[in-house]
Amino acid sequence: VQLQAFGGGLVQPGGSLMLSCVGSGMIFSAFHMGWYRQAPGKQRELVATSTRYGGTYYADSVKGRFTISRDNAKNTVYLQMNSLNPEDTAVYYCNGERATSRRLYWGQGTQVTVSS
């Protein structure tokens, strides 16, 4: 299983970015997928999840601003991030959890920097 994240970059406060994470070597629909982030000097935290059953979860800090979605046919999970603020600056990681074994897989991070 490999997960590869794309889409990070530098954006001004109030701006938007879309992250993508493409999986390979896996039956994508059998995985719960998630996005985490880690800011400098802080622990990695959960941002949003998309279960294999279609459910979603968001951290309170991103509710109403971020949207997670997935396209199982493309083996891809997305994170649409709107109304970004400097506190969203972090390395963002995608994560896949095999639903049967609960084994976790991590992609490489992608840097998101929100700054004017």
Q: What is this entry, summarized?
A:
This protein has strands at about 1-5, 10, 15-25, 30-40, 45-50, 55-60, 65-70, 75-80, 90-100, 105, 110-115. It is mostly beta strands and about 120 residues long.
List keywords for this structure.
116 residues; mainly beta; 7-stranded mixed beta sheet; 4-stranded antiparallel beta sheet
Textual characterization of the structure:
With 116 residues, the protein is an all-beta fold. It has no helices and 11 strands. The strands form 2 sheets. Strands 2, 4, 5, 6, 9, 10 and 11 form a 7-stranded mixed β-sheet that branches. A 4-stranded antiparallel β-sheet has the order 1-3-8-7, with no helix packed on it. β5 and β6 form a beta hairpin. The termini are far apart.
How would the blueprint of this fold be written?
Blueprint: E1 2-6, E2 9-11, E3 17-24, E4 31-38, E5 45-50, E6 56-58, E7 66-71, E8 76-81, E9 90-98, E10 104-106, E11 110-114
Parallel strand pairs: 2-11
Antiparallel strand pairs: 1-3, 3-8, 4-5, 4-9, 5-6, 7-8, 9-10, 9-11
> What distance lies between the first and last C-alpha atoms, to the nearest angstrom?
37 Å
Using the CA coordinates, give the radius of gyration: 13 Å
Helix content range: under 10%
The largest sheet, given as strand count, sense and whether it forms a barrel, is: 7 strands, mixed
Question: If helices are DSSP runs of H or I spanning 4 or more residues, what is the number of helices?
Answer: 0
| Low-pLDDT regions | none
Gross geometry: globular
